[in-house]
Specification:
The complex is a heterodimer.
Chain A (H helix, E strand, L loop, with lengths): L3 E2 L5 E4 L4 E7 L4 E9 L6 E6 L3 E5 L2 E6 L4 E6 L8 E9 L5 E3 L3 E6 L1
Parallel strand pairs in A: 2-11
Antiparallel strand pairs in A: 1-3, 3-8, 4-5, 4-9, 6-7, 7-8, 9-10, 9-11
Chain B lengths: L4 E3 L2 E4 L5 E6 L6 E7 L6 E7 L2 E5 L7 E4 L6 E5 L8 E8 L8 E2 L3 E5 L1
The chains are: A mainly beta, B mainly beta.
Amino acid sequence: QKEVEQNSGPLSVPEGAIASLNCTYSDRVSQSFFWYRQYSGKSPELIMSIYSNGDKEDGRFTAQLNKASQYVSLLIRDSQPSDSATYLCAVNMWGNNRLAFGKGNQVVVIP
Amino acid sequence: DTGVSQDPRHKITKRGQNVTFRCDPISEHNRLYWYRQTLGQGPEFLTYFQNEAQLEKSRLLSDRFSAERPKGSFSTLEIQRTEQGDSAMYLCASSLGGGTTEAFFGQGTRLTVV
């Protein structure tokens, strides 16, 4: 089982709609959770971090964490063409110094 | 604060040659990470420094790879006897340390081995 899984294929959403991305992780003691945005040919950019169960909102982005289900999600409200990118889920496990990444989900916002 | 800086941005090398990449972290960050990313995959952990100490190295990392962080500031990643399979984006990230693990990436170095 992979440490971090993002299984959905490319997601196409119309401009103004909500994009929903999901991520599951294998280690129950994971402590910190992050979403990175990566434009084609560029490096990952941190957009959200979440550490406790529940929702965290930052502008048009909402991260949701459910540690019991080992599940993290990212919602992008009022999607814009500039949101078209690959979104990477990253998890830091307790006592571990590195981030484990999923392979990412591509989002395409259609004008 | 200019963020994490990596040099060079692109490197093309012939198979069998050695290459060295440099990373300058955010100045107050004491943790530094190297990752490798290939097309369609997420970043893969290579190694981690806390100040000048290399505290963790991926089991997948070949002996041809070595990293240093002298004086706990910039870091270098060297690949000896490059192979075509080494072609990838090499990413450096840094974090403040302590209770926070938010990591910020540099622009990356794209390596092409021909």
